[in-house]
Automatic annotation (TrEMBL):
It comes from Acinetobacter sichuanensis. The lineage of its organism: Bacteria, Pseudomonadati, Pseudomonadota, Gammaproteobacteria, Moraxellales. This is NAD-dependent succinate-semialdehyde dehydrogenase. Residues 27-478 form the Aldehyde dehydrogenase domain. SUPFAM superfamilies: ALDH-like. Gene3D superfamilies: Aldehyde Dehydrogenase, Chain A, domain 1, Aldehyde Dehydrogenase, Chain A, domain 2. Belongs to the aldehyde dehydrogenase family.
Length: 483
């Protein structure tokens, strides 16, 4: 069991109305380390009743929180930000322990998570209204902005901290209160963050966390009329289900869902840079990010060169427990994920794909999977059509710009995509033709708190981060004033 120096961060209870508490039933769920399969601890197995209590606490806390000035809320968010940075190493260890990602990635995610608090603390001060030139004499038209109210957030296991703050920071900055449900496999990062929110002086009830039965908790968060907004990050099928559930009470929703990112390398690209970008875009978090490159398209003249260099680099990636400093590729989230990845690879091979690197469960066993490179793939294979969510890179050869645009857009998803080219005219044309919410050009990583993150088509609704990210937590109100 890994040691953290600030033991107050390792919480095994939930946080409702400023109190650390257990499930009413007293029942717990176990949480395991994906690298070692060891039990890390337990979390309360909560359901409908505790979720109601959390929602009611958030409702009680709302009037006082929304009536603070934006500056007062900002000071608390900045105090929370400071505590996260001060505890970065412990938070990173907790994340690696429950999620598996290498420690350097966990440290990076903690900085990234903290950055949303700093950003939205400032953005909260800039929620401006409008005065509209009147269409009639004797009338004044004024627009004001208000916090939407009690918000709910449901988050996935692949970014256990950043997905919490990307929602909590704009919600709290706008004057909303919240109930959070983290993924059952990675609850401790969320609980540690909330422990720091408490220390930062965020009042009781403003932020609440419940863990346990996802369908019961999700059922209450989506049906309770007190909740005015749901922000969900996770898979597309669950997102669709939750959106449907929210329809009855007409909640505002933000949906950050799955992707199927194409990574396109043109003949004129800097191939070494493209290989670097491909490695990070594909193998970060063992291929388990929504913006991970899912399909590689390489133009015919540079295909051999790119594939040879990419294969060499993939074969040299150190796989291991994320807590060991040399590890670049950690385990997948659980053994089932590794089994599913094997099925996808085997299916592709049966349909004619060729394995250039990897292709099987790693000799470390458990949830480890070898970083894999597949060639001879075709569009009918599931590796090309579905989100792989594992360390497998299928590579296609293409001839023309038009062909690759059509292939890249031939998916229900529209989250992130990547282009490598040095021709500015081509970059602009392809950028405009790609049906995606985010386009990385000559970069393999594009998420930052200052830019709008989100997708189109089945990849979701709404944007997080940037000046746009706070809008989903705001209601517009209009006054027509007769003089
Ligand atoms: P998931 O299975 O959809 O789970 C996400 C969250 O939803 C978890 O907290 C889960 O709880 C909860 N959940 C599951 N079933 C539910 C239900 N019936 N009602 C209410 N909540 C429910 O997704 P995942 O496997 O954790 O995450 C991977 C997916 O997230 C991928 O598709 C990835 O692309 C996507 N993702 C998208 C973004 C983005 O910004 N677009 C970012 C990261 C990840 P339990 O853990 O308790 O089951």
């Amino acid at each position: 069991m890994m040691k953290v120096s600030n033991t107050t961060l390792f919480k095994t209870q939930c946080f409702i109305d400023g109190q650390w508490c257990d499930a009413i039933s007293g029942l717990n769920v176990d949480v395991f380390n994906p690298a070692t399969q060891e039990k890390i601890g337990t979390i309360p197995n909560m359901g409908t009743k505790e979720t109601q209590l959390a929602i009611e606490a958030a409702e009680r806390a709302l009037p006082e929180w929304r009536n603070l000035t934006a500056q007062e809320r900002a000071r608390k968010l900045l105090a929370w930000h400071k505590l996260i940075i001060e505890n970065q190493e412990d938070l990173a260890k907790i994340m690696t322990m429950e999620q598996g990602k290498p420690l350097f990635e966990s440290r990076g995610e903690i900085s990234f998570a903290a950055s949303y608090l700093e950003w939205f603390a400032e953005e909260g001060k800039r929620i401006y209204g409008d005065v509209i030139p009147s269409n009639q004499k004797g009338r004044r038209l004024i627009v004001t902005k208000e916090p939407i109210g009690v918000c709910a957030a449901i988050t996935p296991w692949n970014f256990p901290s950043a997905m919490i703050t990307r929602k909590a920071a704009p919600a709290l900055a706008a004057g909303c209160t919240m109930v959070l449900k983290p993924a059952s496999q990675t609850p401790y990062s969320a609980l540690a963050l909330v422990a720091l929110a408490e220390q930062a002086g965020i009042p009781a009830g403003v932020i609440n966390v419940v863990t346990g039965k996802s369908s019961e908790i999700g059922g209450e968060l989506t049906s309770n009329p007190i909740v005015r907004k749901l922000s969900f990050t996770g898979s597309t099928p669950i997102g669709i289900q939750l959106m449907r559930q929210c329809a009855e009470t007409m909640k505002k929703v933000t949906m950050e869902l799955g992707g199927n990112a194409p990574f396109i390398v043109f003949n004129d690209a800097d191939i070494d840079a493209a290989v670097e970008g491909a490695l990070i875009a594909k193998y970060r978090n063992a291929g388990q990010t929504c913006v991970c490159a899912n399909r590689f398209y390489v133009q015919e003249d540079v295909y051999e060169q790119f594939v040879t260099k990419f294969a060499q680099r993939i074969a040299a990636l150190p796989v291991g427990n994320g807590i060991e400093l040399e590890t670049i590729i950690g385990p997948m989230i659980d053994e089932k994920a590794a089994q599913n990845t094997q099925i996808l690879v085997d299916e592709a091979v049966n349909q004619g794909a060729e394995i250039l690197v990897g292709g099987k469960r790693h000799s470390l066993g458990g949830s480890f999977f070898e970083p894999t490179l597949l060639t001879n793939v075709n569009v009918d294979m599931r590796v090309a059509r579905e989100e792989i969510f594992g360390p497998v890179a299928p590579v296609f050869k293409f001839v023309s710009e038009q062909d690759v645009i059509e292939a890249a857009n031939d998916t229900e998803f529209g989250l992130a995509c990547y282009i490598y080219s040095r021709d500015v005219g081509r970059i602009w044309n392809v950028y405009e033709a790609l049906e995606y919410g985010m386009v990385g050009v000559n970069v393999g990583v594009l998420a930052t708190e200052v830019a709008p993150f989100g997708g189109i088509k089945s990849s979701g609704l709404g944007r997080e981060g940037s000046k746009y990210g706070i809008e989903d937590y705001i209601e517009i109100k209009y006054m027509c004033l007769g003089l």
